[in-house]
From TrEMBL:
Its cofactor is Mg(2+). It comes from the Bacteria. It comes from Rhizobium tubonense. This is dITP/XTP pyrophosphatase. Substrate binds at residues 13-18, 75, 163-166, 186, 199-200. The keyword Glycoprotein does not apply. Transmembrane segments: none annotated. Signal peptide: none annotated. One of its GO terms (cellular component) is cytosol.
Length: 214
C-alpha cells in the first residue's frame, strides 16, 4: 500500500463523461488534475480481459508519459442473462462504423440481446455496474480499487443525466435509473459516511481510505 503524497495527478481517460465524474469525486480533496485527453496523450490499446488489467494499462501509460501519478477507471455493465456481457467490452458495444460511440444504439443492442435470451421479466434482468480504479506511479507501482452496484436493466431508457448506459440501469432499492439521478444522488459520498451509491464512488471510497487517509 502506497500513500499518494501529491495533489497533482493525471486522470487517465479520454471519455468526457468519465473524466467529469472522476474530477467531481477528486475535486473536494483539493486535487489539481488534467485528463489524458487535455494533455493529448495517445490512448493505449486496452488489450486486457478484465477490468483490472485494462485499468492498469491506462493508468501506467499516463503515469509514464507525464511523470506524475495517474488515476484511471475501467468500468462496464455486467448482465447475468447475457453471460456477463457486455462486461469489459461495454464501450465496444457502442462503437459505430465511423469510429464514434452511440450509446443509444448500444442500449438498444442490450435490450435486443435480453429479448433474444427471453429475459423480459425484471427478475431475469439482473445486472451490475463495475468500476475498477487504478492509481499508478511513474515507477510502475499500482494500486487497484473495485466498486460494484447491483441493479436491473430497465426499458425503455429513462433520464438524460450521467452518460453511457445510465438511462437503463436501475440500482437495487431505487425507483429511478442512474440517468434520472443528479450527480450528487449518484455519487454522493463524503468521508465518514458508510456507503456510496455508484460503482465509481464505491471504488473511489476505497481509494480514499487506502491512499489518502492517514
Amino acid at each position: 500500500m502506497r500513500k499518494l503524497e501529491t495533489k497533482t495527478i493525471v486522470v487517465a481517460s479520454h471519455n468526457a463523461g468519465k473524466i467529469r465524474e472522476i474530477q467531481d469525486l477528486i475535486g473536494p480533496f483539493g486535487f489539481t488534475a488534467k485528463s489524458a485527453a487535455e494533455l493529448n496523450f495517445i490512448e493505449p490499446d486496452e488489450t486486457g480481459t478484465t477490468f483490472e488489467e485494462n485499468a492498469i494499462i491506462k493508468a501506467l501509460a499516463s503515469a509514464k508519459v507525464s511523470g506524475m501519478p495517474a488515476l484511471s477507471d475501467d468500468s462496464g455493465l455486467v448482465i447475468d442473462a447475457l453471460g456477463g456481457a457486455p462486461g469489459v467490452y461495454t464501450a465496444n458495444w457502442a462503437e459505430t462504423l465511423d469510429g464514434t460511440r452511440d450509446f443509444h444504439m448500444a442500449m438498444q443492442k442490450v435490450e435486443k440481446a435480453l429479448e433474444h435470451a427471453g429475459a423480459t421479466l425484471p427478475e431475469a434482468r439482473a445486472a451490475r455496474f463495475v468500476s475498477v480504479l487504478c492509481l499508478a506511479w511513474p515507477d510502475g507501482h499500482t494500486e487497484l480499487f473495485r466498486g460494484e452496484v447491483m441493479g436491473t436493466i430497465a426499458w425503455p431508457p429513462r433520464g438524460d443525466q450521467g452518460f453511457g448506459y445510465d438511462p437503463i440501469f436501475q440500482p437495487r432499492g431505487y425507483e429511478a435509473t442512474f440517468g434520472e439521478m443528479s450527480a450528487e444522488q449518484k455519487h454522493g459520498w463524503k468521508p465518514g459516511e458508510p456507503e456510496a451509491l455508484s460503482h465509481r464512488a464505491r471504488a473511489f471510497k476505497l481509494f480514499v481510505e487506502t491512499c489518502l487517509e492517514a
